[in-house]
Amino acid sequence: MKTRPKPVADLISPDDIERLALPSNLRYGQVIYKRGGVEFIAFTPLKVEGWVGGLNGSVAEGGSQRRRTQLISTLEGLQWNCTGNPKNHQIFCKHCVALAMAIRDRTHPYH
Ligand SMILES: [Zn+2]
């Protein structure tokens, strides 16, 4: 049997997110998510895409531009893409954090 990528939702446990993101982005992303700043565009087990951000206020309050953000599961592991990041310099930014948390809550509601 061929190896398959794991679902995106299995690669973004709270520990995973903490390991991937800088503490500041972790905080800002959490605020964006809690304020309802995530809107799914496509939701499949191996690829999730959403609009993230676009809220008003300071950065600490979750304010940011709206970005199109993707989380993709591959055989090499999790990949992410955010239109706000420079090419070839893809940090796991606050939009990625917010999207990951939204995916997590949608797929593991009692976690
Ligand atoms: Zn971003």
Question: Can you characterise this structure?
Answer:
This protein has 111 residues and is of the alpha+beta class. The protein is 30% helix and 23% strand. The radius of gyration is 13 Å and the shape is globular. The model has no long low-confidence stretch (mean pLDDT 92). The protein binds zinc ion (ZN). The site of zinc ion has 7 residues, from strand 3. Zinc ion binds next to strand 3.
Q: What would the principal axes of the Cα set say about the shape?
A: globular
What hetero molecules are bound to the protein chains? zinc ion
What is the count of DSSP helices, taking H or I runs of 4+ residues?
3
Strand proportion, as a percent range, falls in 15-25%
Overall SS class: alpha+beta
| H and E order | HHEEEEH
What does the average pLDDT come to? 92
Which strand order spans the largest sheet, edge to edge or round the barrel?
A: 1-2-3-4
Largest β-sheet summary: 4 strands, antiparallel
The figure for the number of domains is 1
First-residue to last-residue Cα separation: 31 Å
Counted beta strands = 4
Uncertain spans: none
Indicate the percent of residues in helices: 25-40%
Rounded to the nearest angstrom, the radius of gyration is 13 Å
Outline the fold blueprint:
Layout: H1 14-20, H2 23-34, E1 38-43, E2 47-52, E3 67-74, E4 77-82, H3 94-107
The protein binds zinc ion (ZN).
Zinc ion (ZN) is lined by residues 67, 69, 82, 84-85, 93, 95.
